[in-house]
Amino acid sequence: MYVERASLVNLLTRPHNAGAPFFRPQFLGNKYPTPDFFVELVGVEEGPVSFFLVQAKTTARGPIQRNGNLPVQVRARNMTQLMRYPAPTYILGIDYPNEIGYLLAVVQGGPARIPRLPTRYPLSDAAVLSALYAEVLHFRRASGVTFATSRFV
User: Fold this and answer.
1) pLDDT in tens, 58-108
2) Short-list 132, 142, 120, 141, CA closest to 53
3) What is the dihedral of CA 37, 74, 102, 29, to 10 degrees?
4) Rounded Cα distance, 16 and 6, in Å
5) Interatomic CA distance for residues 20 and 94, integer angstroms
6) Fold type of domain 2-143
7) Which one of 3, 38, 49, 51 has the largest count of C-beta atoms within 10 Å of its C-beta?
8) pLDDT at 150
9) Cα(130)–Cα(17) distance, rounded to whole angstroms?
10) Nearest to 101 by CA among 66, 65, 58
């Protein structure tokens, strides 16, 4: 898990946004069975805190030559569990010798399990990071999920 943690933090905290990182990842440890990281968007000054959850998968083998997919797997049970969170959730496959991460959203109607991770969305691409930031920010602003009332006030 140390390699996954270090690689993911490095990939998500590279300066992109006017010299600053887009994201602030926090490792969840063994306290959560499915997501490995809580990742907060940096620079969101108003509204609820914008964040997403990540399950990280690491390999030393790199993408498979014939189809370009990363040889990491996510079981159906984990995909189902990730879909239950009321937040954007992603699988991040990490080719750690080359320090390249690939992103895949976990959404209703998406793959039920991942036998190999597609490499269409590399985190080394600034456009992918920017689109991820925009997607999560849009979700948070559109969902309007806030804790506004309580009997304990």
Assistant:
1) 888 877 767 788 999 999 999 999 999 989 999 999 988 888 899 999 998
2) 132
3) 20
4) 18
5) 22
6) Trna Endonuclease; Chain: A, domain 1 (3.40.1350)
7) 51
8) 65
9) 8
10) 58
pLDDT at 146: 67
What are the residue ranges spanned by the domains of the chain? 2-143
Do the beta carbons of residue 83 and residue 106 sit within 8 Å? Answer: yes
Non-local (6+) Cβ contacts of 50 within 8 A are 40, 41, 44, 136, 137, 139, 140, 141
First to last CA, the chain: 40
Reported as a single tens digit per residue, the pLDDT across 119-128 is 999 998 989 9
Give yes or no for a contact between 141 and 47, defined as CB atoms under 8 angstroms apart. yes
Q: Residue 117 is which amino acid?
A: L
Contacts 24+ apart (CB under 8 A), 107-112: 107/83, 108/83, 110/79, 111/79, 112/76, 112/79, 112/80
User: Tell me, what's the pLDDT at 67?
Assistant: 77
Query: Contact, 102 vs 117, CB < 8 A?
Result: yes
Q: Output the six-digit token pair for 126.
A: 């600034």
Return the structure tokens found at 152. Answer: 């304990």
